[in-house]
Design goal:
Chain B: It comes from Devosia algicola. The complex is a heterodimer. Chain A is mostly helical. Chain A has 16 helices and no strands. Chain B is mainly alpha-helical. Chain B has 15 helices and two strands. In chain B, a hairpin with a 7-residue loop joins β1 and β2. In chain B, α5 runs antiparallel to α12, α7 crosses α9 and α12 runs antiparallel to α15. The chains are: A mainly alpha, B mainly alpha.
Chain lengths: ~280, ~300
């Protein structure tokens, strides 16, 4: 873009052969990137006899694999578990991370900086270090193998709090002061006045939290033991043990785990890309 | 205004509650701590306390059945004497040392050129970004299938079509680690590309205009303007991806399910060793000591970032 800015308008229309080569290479690279996904979808539409065929487009596409995987029931259950867990954790993060971020950005009280540093310092602690104490805690409180057990470690995050604090700092104090004069209480001011002013940040936080929990693997693998409580990644991971190795069925399972995020991406593409940029620059 | 509304409030009901007697300032402080109450409990109980507990457990011998027994630094001594630990240590750094530079160079090249492309920009960007949205458990299967020997595996299938020698991929200790690393890079590439594009766009175009007026060539502009001004973005991505590779687990576990970390521990990273020590062997104290080592490594990497940033 920068090269374009200084060139004369007449030159802007001219396309150099170098640009065509660059464009073609970028497109080819992009197509290579999605090849594994294309093969996954292609195989999920094939019968077991056709999977050795390297052709991407199945001769006679069939939805039989989807019907058989979904009618199994277990897979559907994992799907529901993942959706439920990721949704609840997302709502919790949007609520609490915003509330803490807002408090740290807009209230003045002794200890504010200390609380901020304390929360920020938890970014340094890797999850792997906490799982053993969490496991112990869960077993003592009977949280092992429950939904709450899967969800509790992620109900608030330092990353989300930091992101929201950065954004609330850009909200002018006058807005909040005006609401205060109108006699609103502080909770209403935060929820009704400040929150709508930072919707881009909220959508970024929500998308990240949902995606992160939808694909989360390590902790759900540790905390769940009964098959009914598996999340989709944990269920998929042990899929073959029961299915022997039926590649077309496994690819169908993998495709079903991928389709929701692809749909969300296609619908929210602009928000997601902007969200990644925001998080990257602020973080 | 606020005095007026206050006096109206006070004039209304006769009795004043304790709350009404507080000054506006005090009320706000009380609100602040009310907002923070639950989060403080959360961070205290689910972040800080477990951290200290992990340090403590690393000094104990504990199998979940009998009470934990204090053993001092015995776990650390055992770790240093354990050849598997050193193999794992080496693997973890192999992921880092190959993964981080490779993924950053590729993603920077893509971002640098993609940023200038106007035609179908969004579509091409989406192609690179899509793998980032997948889950490692699902993609682990896809890549394992790709890596199978003929007639199942796609990659070996294509190699045989073109008459090229077959590859062992995940089945040989020599090639397994690289075979796991490639999907890990593949999955993270789109994220890095988007962050790099954001960084490139944050460079004011006046810098480029000035350089052009001064008669600098493309290469000089790239070296003197683009690279230095992109430094914060690059450092962020170096640290972000380093931490990611040092903590690699999902890809390895899902591509070596039958023998996690195999063949012959050739792909086992530190986090997988922690997982097995804790949840297959139930040596909780030893596993906690390994997490302390991981924590230290990550801390050093993060501090190095701060140091590089400060030098700027």
């Amino acid at each position: 873009m920068s090269t374009m800015d200084v060139e004369l308008p007449a030159n802007r229309m001219r396309i150099r052969p170098g640009q065509i080569i660059t464009w073609t290479l970028l497109l080819l690279g992009g197509l290579i990137m999605v090849t594994p996904l294309l093969y996954m979808f292609a195989t999920s539409l094939k019968t077991s006899g056709q999977i050795y065929d390297l052709k991407l487009i199945p001769a006679a596409p069939t939805l039989d694999n989807y019907i058989s995987v979904l009618s199994d029931g277990r897979f559907l259950r994992w799907f529901v578990n993942s959706t439920l867990i990721a949704s609840i954790v997302t709502v919790s993060n949007v609520f609490f991370d915003s509330m803490v971020g807002y408090t740290l950005a807009k209230f003045e009280f002794r200890g504010r900086y200390f609380i901020f540093l304390a929360i920020l310092s938890t970014l340094m602690i890797p999850t792997e270090m906490l799982v053993i104490p969490w496991y112990l805690m869960s077993s003592q409180l009977h949280w092992l193998d429950t939904y709450w057990g899967i969800m509790f470690p992620g109900m608030m995050t330092a990353f989300g709090t930091f992101l929201m604090k950065q954004f609330f700092e850009t909200v002018p104090d006058d807005f909040l002061e005006a609401a205060r004069v109108d006699g609103m209480n502080e909770f209403t001011i935060w929820w009704k006045i400040a929150m709508p002013l930072v919707t881009p940040a909220i959508s970024a936080l929500a998308i990240f939290t949902f995606l992160g929990n939808w694909t989360a693997f390590f902790w759900p693998l540790i905390v769940t033991t009964s098959r009914e409580l598996y999340t989709l990644p944990v269920g998929l991971s042990g899929f073959s043990v029961e299915q022997s190795i039926q590649w077309e069925k496994i690819m169908t399972g993998a495709a079903l785990a991928t389709i929701p995020t692809l749909i969300v991406f296609l619908v929210l593409q602009r928000f997601i890309v902007r969200g990644v940029m925001l998080a990257g620059l602020k973080g | 205004m606020s005095i007026a509304s206050d006096s109206i409030k006070r004039a209304g009901p006769e009795r004043t509650t304790v709350w009404d007697r507080f000054s506006i300032r005090t009320k706000r402080v009380i609100w602040a701590w009310t907002f923070l109450a639950l989060p403080i409990l959360f961070y205290g109980g689910i972040r800080f306390y477990p951290t200290f507990q992990a340090f403590w457990l690393s000094l104990t011998d504990w199998d979940l059945m009998r009470p934990a027994k204090f053993v001092g630094l015995a776990n650390y001594q055992a770790m240093l004497a354990d050849p598997v630990f050193w193999k794992v240590f080496q693997n973890t750094f192999a992921y880092l040392i190959i993964g981080t530079p490779l993924s950053l160079v590729i993603s920077f090249a893509i971002a640098y050129y993609l940023d200038r492309v106007r035609f179908m920009h969004g579509f091409i960007r989406a192609l690179y970004f899509l793998p980032f949205l997948t889950t490692a458990a699902a993609m682990g299967w896809v890549w394992r299938w790709f890596y199978q020997p003929v007639p199942i595996g796609v990659l070996n299938g294509f190699l045989s079509v073109f008459g090229l020698p077959q590859q062992t991929f995940l089945r040989s200790p020599d090639t397994a680690l690289t075979s796991i690393l490639m999907p890990a890079i593949w999955a993270g590439l789109g994220f890095q590309v988007i962050i790099f594009i954001a960084g490139l766009r944050a460079i004011p175009s006046t810098f480029y205009e000035a350089a052009r007026i001064d008669g600098l060539g493309e290469w000089a502009i790239f070296r003197k303007i683009t690279l230095p001004l992109l430094k914060p973005t690059t450092i962020f991505l170096v640290v972000f991806s380093s931490i990611g590779f040092l903590r690699i687990f999902d890809q390895v576990y899902n591509m070596t399910t039958n023998d996690p970390g195999g063949p012959l521990n050739s792909t086992k990273p530190l986090v997988l060793m922690i997982y097995q020590t804790a949840f297959s062997s139930y040596k909780m104290g030893y596993a906690a000591a390994q997490t302390v080592v991981l924590f230290t490594i990550l801390l050093v990497v993060s501090l190095m970032q701060l140091w590089v940033l400060r030098k700027r």
